[in-house]
Amino acid sequence: MMLYGAIFGCLSPILSVAAFLSYKSPFISPKDEKQNVEKAKAALLNENLDGSTSIIDNKQSDHLLMVIAYNKWSRILQEHGARSAHQFCRSFYLNSTVMYMIRLDS
Ligand SMILES: *[C@@H]1O[C@H](CO)[C@@H](O)[C@H](O)[C@H]1NC(C)=O
Predict the structure, then answer these.
(1) What's the whole-model pTM score?
(2) Which of 89, 98, 102 to mutate to test the pocket of ligand 1 (most atoms within 8 A of CB)?
(3) CB 39 less than 6 A from any atom of ligand 1
(4) How many Å apart are CA 105 and CA 20, to the nearest integer?
(5) What's the mean per-residue pLDDT of the chain?
(6) Which member of 10, 17, 25, 65 has the greatest number of CB atoms within 10 A?
(7) Is the distance from CB of 24 to CB of 98 less than 8 angstroms?
(8) What Pfam family is a match, any one (predicted)?
(9) Containing domain of residue 32, as a range?
(10) Res 76 pLDDT > 70
(11) What 3-state DSSP class applies to 82?
């Protein structure tokens, strides 16, 4: 958790992740689309970390992804509205409902 704080330089994403972890993963994993889900996750991660992802193992990167996904989602929601935010969730296999729940919590 402290590591994420150092990476992102602020506390609120940490609280969001804590909320995710205590509540429910925002990721939707349809069985028949496992590969696409992995691709979407990798795309999210690489876009933000410029390929330096090899130092992050899978379990950690899921937590990191929650922060990245949440930050993106909330920015899109603010700047482009609910429709765009929902579209973002669809393309990255995120559960829109869970995103809104986390938002209310934090
Ligand atoms: C999204 O999360 C909500 C609340 O936990 C749950 O009821 C719903 O089934 C989830 N949707 C999907 C597609 O996983």
Answers:
(1) 0.71
(2) 98
(3) no
(4) 10
(5) 76
(6) 65
(7) yes
(8) HA2_C
(9) 2-105
(10) yes
(11) helix
Domain count, the chain: 1
Residues 89 and 96 sit within 8 Å (Cβ to Cβ): yes
CA atoms within 13 A on the CB side of 30: 12
Residue 25 exposure: Cα atoms within 13 Å on the Cβ side = 10
Listed residue (48, 17, 28) closest to 89, CA to CA? 28
pLDDT at 55 over 50: no
Length of the chain: 106
- ∠ at Cα 105 (67, 19), nearest 5°? 45
Let me know: does 17 contact 4? Beta carbons within 8 Å: yes
Mind giving me the DSSP string for 84-97? HHHHHHHHTTB-HH
